[in-house]
């Protein structure tokens, strides 16, 4: 019968020599292995049948045994959970994983409450922020990112005048590191700046006046007049507008109904990607005021192919999506002619919200018309200019 004996070089078992430094020591609970470096690695099998390894190695075997003892007590006291075990096992990863590596994994695996992955445009924007304003954190280990470093970085962006970008980058940084806390890679989130994700430039988007809107209509090429109408009176976003097709417009009597259910985004390296709207609330039906129907009639007759799937506003080739960069030169000339070279395309959406509010729309109706998920979001598009005058005149009538 083979006899095992412990020698200077290891264990001799039936003529087979196993180096002592690689063998596991049998403990009353768990196992301890001496590594080639001379340090000790502890592990155990949890109640779920999975093996969990200590987040770091130990200089002394007594420390490894102490770590195992604590895990054994957690199990005996019914304090052990799979989550705490994974967090404990993953804590050491934060000491070696860089922010850039973890953030890329975060973007690639992030899902919403419905289980859907990030939209291509959103993922591309996050990667831009990681490679841009967040690049200083890229090579740092997760555990090396502290509150002081975050505050110094944020302060430098604010000082440079990029408040909106600072807020977006900070919001992303905080979200990524919050997940690192959940994963057990960090003990606390170092992003602790109050209101850091809500900093803005303070600039308000001023919608065009009726005269300015007419000036834009007079200047912009005829094939884009209906686009201005839909943005101003239906409040559709650019990505929604450029994915609208002939079948998405219905005429009932003297009014058009716009059915919004899709949007297109242009992602660098991927081209145009058609997907859902910005949110579930973005899927909506909007009725246009009757006075714009002649413009829509003319556009469908003169600039849209007769097929149901024909884009309402295609690129110059007549069938592919219209890039925002290609459209911009026409928009820039039109807004300049209206005396509003500062006005973004999004201001037309504000115009529609303001007109709906002046017509007596409730906040809930505005929310539905604009495709917002919350009433609070719809409130941001209400502009009181003109409304206060109307209220004052009504007060006068009651005097």
Explain what you see.
The protein is α+β, with helices and mostly antiparallel strands and 399 residues long. The chain is 42% helix and 13% strand. It is built from 15 helices and twelve strands. The protein has helices at 61-76, 82-90, 99-109, 120-131, 147-159, 163-182, 210-219, 225-233, 238-241, 293-303, 324-337, 347-358, 363-370, 375-379, 387-398, and strands at residues 5-6, 10-13, 16-19, 24-26, 31-34, 40-45, 51-53, 249-252, 255-260, 263-267, 271-275, 284-287. The strands form four sheets. Strands 4-5-6-7 form a four-stranded antiparallel beta sheet. A three-stranded antiparallel beta sheet has the order 1-2-3, with no helix packed on it. A hairpin with a 3-residue loop joins strand 10 and strand 11 (271-275). The N and C termini lie far apart (114 Å).
For the sheet with most strands, the description reads:
4 strands, antiparallel
Cα end-to-end separation: 114 Å
Radius of gyration: 31 Å
Look at the structure and give the mean pLDDT: 82
H-E order: EEEEEEEHHHHHHHHHEEEEEHHHHHH
Q: Oligomeric form of this entry?
A: single chain
Count of helix runs: 15
Residues in helices, as a percent range: 40-55%
The general outline is elongated
Please indicate the percent range of residues in DSSP E strands (runs of 2 or more). 5-15%
The SS-based structural class is alpha+beta
Number of DSSP-assigned strands: 12
Strand neighbour order, sheet with most strands: 4-5-6-7
Low-confidence stretches: 1-21
